[in-house]
From TrEMBL:
Keywords: Kinase, Transferase. One of its GO terms (molecular function) is kinase activity. It comes from Kribbella rubisoli. Belongs to the ROK (NagC/XylR) family. InterPro entries: ATPase_NBD, ROK, WH-like_DNA-bd_sf. Transmembrane segments: none annotated. Gene3D superfamilies: 3.30.420.40, Winged helix-like DNA-binding domain superfamily/Winged helix DNA-binding domain. This is NBD/HSP70 family sugar kinase.
Length: 416
């Protein structure tokens, strides 16, 4: 909607019109691999001199640069001098995504096209205090910058996913800070109700840090780079060290009024917590047996029981060997998870349900009992797909959140 002439009767604000045109031009470059001057004119809807001025300003700002022309068959090339092509400079800024969990802190860095440049991970003791966990998050983010050879000054945005965070219109808070129903037992990281997560991370990194719920960010990543790229309405089931869920409607994470949309795992009637406890207990038994067979737990890098953080992986491996007890525990877990998915599916009628988190890598051992139970409880058949993401899904979702914020700021037009 950018024009050289006055629009909607407004004739006096040429400065505003120029800012609108500049925003439209930058948006055009963001939406295309490259553009010629003629193509820029057509997209923005301006005269050639105006298009030249807009291009010149974007070149001066370093947001756009000249690039080679896309390859085309020789039979389709026009005669005469080839047109110059220009592209958005993805490296004109960078974003970082951070995942702080019970067992790890993981950071990723991408350019402004979302291309992944570096990933850094550090294992954490599940009993680490809140301050130590925040320090670990700060250090792993800085390590990712160093690995990507990016200066702190070039970082345009940072976001972090945290277990138990609820992101509402009035700000981000820990799920246990509110008047939680007496029959519920929500989980958050130890000590995170006593600290300002966003404030402490921002102070340590020297940049503003946005904080959001980890499962919702994992769902966002799945829609961005994972198995749900072609879908808009999604129920995302997270099964890892704990169980959780997120909902995307028309490609956007649905937060709800208080940021609590999808938090059905706290509902006792579903039985998620007992099923997770049995899964972890079986994993701990397998880990202890493995440690005993190898002469004890000497040399483990962190405190805590053997196999801490790997319980699901151990149960999956045992079930794959047809261990009856592990199979029983795993099938029960899959069925309980499916009941929660059915509740959400009946509420929002999604195109697809995605099984995410570390447990999703169990393949058919998890997916088939999940599908069978889900089919009993839904009105229509719903496709179930396993996540294509790895352990970096939350961090990538955080990077996507930061990237969306940065792009929105780039395209914002003050006074419009």
């Amino acid at each position: 909607m950018s024009q050289d002439r006055a629009h909607d009767g407004r004739t006096g604000d040429s400065s505003l019109l120029r800012r609108l045109n500049l925003s439209a031009a930058l948006g055009a470059f963001l939406a295309a691999e490259s553009l010629t001057l003629r193509e820029l004119r057509a997209v923005v809807g301006v005269s050639r001199p105006t298009a030249e001025d807009l291009l010149s300003e974007l070149l001066t700002e370093g947001r756009v640069e000249e690039t080679s022309a896309p390859r085309t068959p020789s039979s389709t090339r026009a005669a005469g001098r080839p047109a110059r092509h220009f592209r958005f400079r993805a490296e004109s800024g960078y974003v970082a995504g951070l995942d702080i969990g019970a067992h790890k802190a993981l950071a990723v860095i991408t350019d402004l096209r979302g291309n992944l440049l570096a990933t850094e991970r550090v294992e954490l003791d599940p009993d680490l205090d809140a301050r130590g966990r925040i320090r670990a998050g700060i250090e792993v983010v800085r390590s990712s910058w160093a690995r990507a050879k990016v200066d702190a000054a070039d970082i345009s945005g940072i976001a972090c996913g945290v277990t138990g965070a609820l992101r509402a219109a009035e700000g981000v808070h820990d799920v246990r800070e509110g008047p939680v129903g007496s029959a519920l037992a929500p989980y958050s990281l130890p000590g995170f109700t006593e600290i300002d997560v966003a404030g402490d991370l921002s102070a340590g990194l020297g940049k503003p840090v946005a904080v959001a719920n980890d499962v919702k960010l994992a769902a966002l990543a799945e829609h961005w780079k994972g198995a749900a790229r072609e879908h808009r309405d999604i129920v995302y089931m997270f099964a890892g060290h704990r169980a959780g869920a997120g909902v995307l409607i028309d490609g956007q994470v649905h937060q709800g009024r208080h940021g609590a949309a999808g938090e059905i795992g706290v509902f006792p009637a579903l039985g998620w917590a007992p099923a997770m406890e049995r899964l972890h207990a079986r994993g701990a038994e397998l880990a202890a047996a493995d440690a005993a067979s190898q002469g004890g737990a000497a040399g483990r890098p962190h405190a805590g029981p053997p196999g801490a953080g790997r319980e699901g992986e151990l149960v999956i491996a045992s079930a794959a060997r047809q261990d009856p007890e592990s199979l029983e525990v795993l099938i029960e877990f899959a069925e309980v998870l499916a009941r929660g998915a059915a509740v959400l599916a009946l509420a929002v009628d999604p195109e697809v349900i995605v099984l995410g988190g570390g447990m999703s890598r169990g393949g058919a051992i998890i997916a088939e009992p999940f599908r069978r139970e889900l089919a009993k409880l839904t009105l229509v058949p719903i496709e179930v797909i396993s996540s294509a993401m790895g352990a970096d899904s939350v961090a990538l979702g955080a990077a996507r959140m930061a990237l969306d914020t940065v792009v929105a700021e780039l395209l914002a037009v003050p006074g419009s």
